[in-house]
Amino acid sequence: MKKDKEVPDFISRKTKRGILLLVFLCLLIIYTPRLFSLFKKTDAVELTQLEIEKMEQLQANYIQEQQKKKKNSFKKREYRRPPKKFDPNQYSKAQWMYVGLSDKQAEVMLKITKKGIWTNEFLAKIVVIPEEVFQLIKDSTIYPERKYKNKEHTEYPKYEKKEIVLVEINTADLEGLKSMPGIGPSYALRINAYKELLGGFVRKEQLLEVYGLDLEKLDQFEKYCKVDPSAIVKMNINEVDVNRLKMHPYINYSVANSIVQMRKQKGKFNKIEELKESKLINPELFEKLKPYVYL
Prior knowledge:
Elements: H1 13-73, H2 93-99, H3 103-115, H4 120-124, H5 131-137, H6 151-154, E1 167-168, H7 174-178, H8 185-198, H9 215-221, E2 225-226, E3 235-236, H10 242-246, H11 253-266, H12 283-289, E4 293-294
Parallel strand pairs: 1-2, 3-4
Helix pairs in contact: 2-3
């Protein structure tokens, strides 16, 4: 049996060495900058630290300057008493600054005095005048007599008390209801609609049952209205049917049906108090219904 022929080696030892050398040079080129940066790292940190220290010093200097300026700006101002009595309306900017106002405060005072100052009470309320200044100048102020232009036009006509016209809620139309203070078109419609369902109001407090009306609103117009119970529209409990009864705000279907069934059993009601025989009508409900029914 013949031996297999050896595979010829096309890459010589010299070529292999050249390739390895080339790979080594490539790696050296790639990693040299990184190695260099590692050796220089200490120097870079030191430079950065120096820069930080310089910035901190500059910042500290700036803060000191700002605090110094602030301290000077809030330095206690010297207040003086006026050399003589004076009319604040005639004081100049320089005179206001003499007693202790700042430039801006003096400017504001000139704008105010242009309109006129007539009392120390008004002067004390001016914000730009410090309390210390006011205490120093209050005894030196003099004010001229205040004159009114066209005095006859500044007098107000005598108030003539008008008689309040009361609105009777049960007979009033929408316009009458709207004439009361605080009652606009919306509230007028609600009051009128509830009045129709109820049959009328027995007392003013029932107005609180109207949607949206509360004590605050009632207080606004209560003294402008009145209630006449004789104007109430009543229901004959011996004739009215279930549908009419359940439309009343105080009566639901169960109560309405109970009244009609009792009437059928009795033939008719002989007195209003017989309604209390229904288990669904308690004393409180009976008192509420009593003004709205008859025999």
